[in-house]
Write a structure and sequence with these properties.
alpha+beta; single chain; Nonspecific Lipid-transfer Protein, Chain A; five-stranded mixed beta sheet; globular
Length: about 250
């Protein structure tokens, strides 16, 4: 797919952050989040907001190493419920303001391989925010409402994380295995193949060993492990073992 414009990504981070704040404000903070282990909604909000502030601190300090959460100013969700909304709504701007103050091309630490330009963090935090808003919607029994173009970008961003490499993930594809992810609504398609110890993707949609077709939102939920390989939202063909193996090896 065509990369999203930087301004679009920044606006989406602010919008997704506000949507999650609105969702939190209208729900019980103790709501369990089944897709996130033993988290409650209040833990999910703390994770996203604290993560934004953590990333902003890495950027502002031009850090080339990880910074512990405990060393980040104002990283914890306030204990006073009346202060939570104000604290959280500021966190997306904290990331964007940090990039602008530091310079978008300044290399900083990331959890995925080499240093990256600080602007990289805005897209990363956008999809962290969007994915966890989906968790909250699923927990509340509501439809997952994400712009399909944004969801497609989330699929590609997740693939890029796998490509960068992390101790969290194993290579999702065996030798000789490949998978086509096709978004039926946006027309985007990713033919993903193993390349040595990593993965890559291209537009050759014919020579793959397995195919998954779904809407962009459902593909996004799939790669995040939020819906299973046998979900009725998916249309599968080819080698039936490829997708379950992929999900097992990319589980958070």
């Amino acid at each position: 797919m065509e990369p999203l414009d930087t301004a679009v990504i920044r606006a989406a981070l602010r919008s997704e952050n506000d949507l999650l704040a609105d969702l939190y404000g209208g729900a019980d903070p103790e709501t369990p989040i089944p897709t996130c282990g033993d988290w409650r909604l209040k833990n999910l909000l703390a994770h996203v907001g604290g993560g934004h502030r953590w990333a902003a601190t890495i950027i502002v300090r031009r850090s080339t190493e990880n910074i512990a959460f405990a060393a980040v100013p104002d990283v914890r969700r306030p204990r006073d419920p009346a202060e939570v909304d104000h604290w959280f709504r500021q966190t997306a701007d904290a990331v964007i303001d940090a990039v602008d103050a530091t310079g978008g091309e300044v290399p900083v630490w990331t959890p995925f391989g080499a240093l990256r330009p600080s602007e990289w963090w805005i897209r990363r935090r956008l999809h962290e925010n969007t994915g966890h808003r989906a968790d909250a919607l699923l927990a509340l029994g509501r439809p997952v409402t994400i712009d399909p173009v944004l969801a497609a970008d989330g699929v590609e961003e997740f693939l890029s994380l796998l490509q960068m490499g992390s101790a969290r993930f194993r290579n999702p594809l065996d030798e000789g295995a490949s998978i086509l992810l096709r978004a039926t609504d946006t027309g985007d398609a990713w033919a993903v193949r193993r390349t040595g110890d990593s993965i890559g993707w291209d537009g050759d949609t014919e020579s793959v060993t397995a195919t998954v077709q779904a809407t962009a939102v459902d593909l996004y939920l799939l790669v995040l492990g939020r819906i299973p390989a046998d979900s009725p939202a998916l249309t599968l063909s080819g080698d039936a073992a490829v997708l379950p193996t992929w999900l097992e090896r990319t589980e958070f």
